[in-house]
Amino acid sequence: MTMLRQPAAPPAGEDGGAEKPRPRRLRPAGRRDIALLWFAIPGLAAMLLFHYIPLLGNIIAFQDYQPFIGITHSPWSGLDNFGVIFNGDDQFLRALVNTLELTLIQVVFVFPVPIVLALLLNSLVGERVKKAVQNVLYLPHFLSWVVIVALFQQMLGNTGMLNLFLSAHDLGTWSIIGNPDMFKALLTSQVIWKDAGWGTILFLAALSRVDSNLYEASAMDGASRWRQTWHVTLPALRGLVILLLILRLGDALSVGFEQILLQQTAVGLDNSEVLDTYVFNNGLVGGQWGVAAAVGLVKGAVGVLLVLGANKVAHLFGEEGVYRS
Amino acid sequence: MTTLSPTRPERGGKPRGTYSAIPGESAGSPPWRALKSLLLLVCVLLVVLPFLAIISTSIADPAQITEAGGFVLWPDNPTLASYTALLSGGLVSKAMMVSVGVTVAGTALSLITSIMLAYGLSRPGSFGHKPILMLLLMSLLFVPGVIPTYLMVRQLGLINSYWSLILPTMINAFNVIVLRSFFMGIPRELIDAARIDGASEWSILTRIVLPLSKASIGVIGLFYAVTYWNAFFNALLFMNDASKWPMQLVLRTYVINNASLSGGQLDVAAGAPVPPAQSLQAAILILSIVPIVVVYPFVQRHMNKGVMIGAVKG
Lengths: 325, 314
Fold this sequence. Notes:
heterodimer; A: 325 residues; globular; B: 314 residues; mainly alpha; MetI-like fold; 2 domains
């Protein structure tokens, strides 16, 4: 209701015109407010059932969970399940190292691509061409990882188009798919192919807000195009870049779960096991429910801490970050 | 994404101009322009060419495929043999039906519940508004994880049920927040006027708010539909019964893992040649993309606005 946000405004409608404005806290919840609550209930129920109640399921991280006797009867095991983390189990460490490596690779090689692409689009083409290019480049974002992995296989696989072309011209073959040494490069190029275009949306939006007077003024002062980019365009993107980096940090321990799971059998676990696949392979496939839940729990907690911490750092540097405190 | 601040007043969610009218930097000298155009052209080709190649292979003549050694860039005698073999009643037709059914039902349910939730939260200061919004926002930060979700679905007895592909992903907090921003951008006077005329909340929603937010609902609907259509992992977890598989699992098994389709899974007349594996695989791949490509043009012109309102509000 409007007046709830402006206590000084004269009351209107069903509250009765003669009443004096009361302090907000004392105002009884009107019928219309209750009506609004009813609207929220189905969605809220789904939210609770599949989001908040499962959060409690993490309790099996502290149990020796047996699927057949359930959470209520499984024996408690204290922190035993966390042993793989603290004692540095080889398999776990391998997953951790691969995860961090992939995150680092993606921040360095994937993150800047949409920025460059947005600058390219922004500084160049006519409206129509730009729209057309955007629509083509956005499309892969909407495809599933299964489709993308399948496409890459058909193009670059050992019997895919590239290798057929190479061998038809006596150029030998180039093993890309299923080659453990190429795996991280392959993952990275798939991520770029899928989401680089989509990533430009935010940067283009930010670029559209740059005051054109700044360009004119800088041109007056004799700035070259490069200097315009450096001193006007890039500073305009700074806040957004920091924001996206913070959000990326929250996902630092989750890299391409579906994408990796789909291609894991072809390259073996050494190069492809990440924390998410570790949880899946050990928990749901291997039956070590408690251990997998423990790893998942720590992973989630670290992610939350990273976001909160990074946000704090952003505030210290005077940036807005994800939310205002 | 950026709207993790429930206390921030969020009125006037209109973007300050789309980026259609970017003054921008000067485009540079002709050689630079040519180079930039070339770079963009390469990007576009990198996206388009794989699709063209796959389509060609899916409709190519078997003889040409054998001659080319597997893949065809341009079909000489196009034939729809692989599509008819896949779509006339076998495994793939079933999977298409499952995927379409789950997508349609799921999108409808998601949109209804999300619109209602977003509308319920669209009036700051209303009773219970703050804690519910908080709950919604927190769900973006705290994710339950694979194993607890699996246990929940199993506990509810939804394993091998189509509901397992719908219910766990029915509400997406981010989409609800985007819808909410749209609803809050609708002029308050309009809603107050309707209320003075005696309209109930339900008729305000259906007669005023919804007609004014068609574009945003279209975009959010596309996001939900894509999620359902693309759902692979949930299907992998919850659908042990191969006869209930959606397209994504079929695609994984027969294209990525290269399992061969047996005669019983195809519908080929007795004595007729079975289309080559390459064109069958290409056809499955195309079939699992087609619905997205069909819906995409209807929504893409609203896409920028939809994404930006959610992400970088003015």
